[in-house]
Design goal:
mainly alpha, 2 domains
């Protein structure tokens, strides 16, 4: 069981390495965000699973950590995407900007509450 744990940890380290490489090599915000979220989630889960195999007494605590990571990583990616959009760092890479269309439609209708919902 211990050998399986070390193999899983090596797999997790590989996903962390791929994530770091993706953050350096990817050309735009969306692909960097994908590399930063997906690969680190997989790396973290493999590391935690490997640690649970090596030290079974830690399994309940590691399960809580895994659930926390699974719940917070998608949220952090969403917040990063919103921050990139609002700061204007996306530039001209957006082919279709549905958010801007929805916001302008809410402003044209004069519904201040709808504009608040779109922008918040």
């Amino acid at each position: 069981m211990e050998i399986l744990g070390y193999v899983l940890m090596a797999g997790g380290a590989f996903f962390f390495w791929v994530s770091g490489l993706g953050l350096i090599r990817m050309p735009d915000v969306f692909t960097r965000m994908h590399a930063g979220a997906k690969a680190t989630t997989m790396g973290s889960l493999l590391m935690l699973l490997g640690a649970a195999c090596v030290e079974p007494a830690w399994a309940p605590r590691l399960l809580l950590l895994a659930l926390f990571i699974l719940l917070t990583n998608p949220l952090s990616s969403s917040v990063l995407a919103r921050a990139a959009y609002r700061s204007g760092t996306l530039g001209t890479i957006l082919v279709h900007d549905a958010y801007a269309e929805r916001r302008s439609a809410a402003e044209e209708s004069g519904d201040g509450r709808a504009v608040e919902e779109v922008t918040s």
